[in-house]
Amino acid sequence: MARSTPPAPDTVTREVVDLIGTVVARFHGDYEAAAAAHSLTGAQARLLALLAREPLPMRRIAQRLKCEPSNVTGIVDRLEERGLVERRPAPADRRVKLAAVTAEGARTAERVRASLDFAREPLAALPSADRETLRDLLRQLLGESSGTGGTDAAA
């Protein structure tokens, strides 16, 4: 069976893809700078932001951050040494260890989020309905329903 060649993207699709790439690059740079200002790597800041929502087992963290579990172990170890994260048994299965932010870790995650400059003012300048539309379109693009509480993105 011969594979068919997908149709070439239209002009608007190409422009949207380029714009998304630009947004991602700018956000990544701003996120790395915000993390560094708090003596964190970008990976550490993303992990803190993720755990600020809920404690998670290491394997789930690795899935959400799209990295190897061994990398997550090292990041959690370094954050634990700084008192930002702790390991605790899962309530449903005490053999499973969850990584969870400490009170200081939650405060640090919030300070990193608050120091992100990129897009804050441009987004705030948009009417509320436009921000909601953008949010809903991004959720749709990510395959999420509009009723979810958010994505695994760090900011």
Which CATH C-level class of the domain at 36-116 is it? Answer: Mainly Alpha
Largest sheet: 3 strands, antiparallel
Helix content: 55-70%
The string of secondary-structure elements, in order, is HHEHHEEHHH
Poorly predicted tracts of residues: 148-155
Total of DSSP H or I helical runs spanning 4+ residues: 7
Largest sheet, order of strands side by side? 1-3-2
Q: What Rg do the Cα atoms give? A: 18 Å
> Which shape, going by the Cα principal axes?
globular
Question: Which structural class fits the helix and strand makeup?
Answer: mainly alpha
Distance between the termini: 45 Å
CATH homologous superfamily descriptor of the domain at 36-116: Winged helix-like DNA-binding domain superfamily/Winged helix DNA-binding domain
Mean pLDDT: 87
Strand residue percentage: 5-15%
Tally of strands: 3
CATH topology-level fold name of the domain at 36-116: Arc Repressor Mutant, subunit A
Q: Which CATH architecture of the domain at 36-116 is right?
A: Orthogonal Bundle
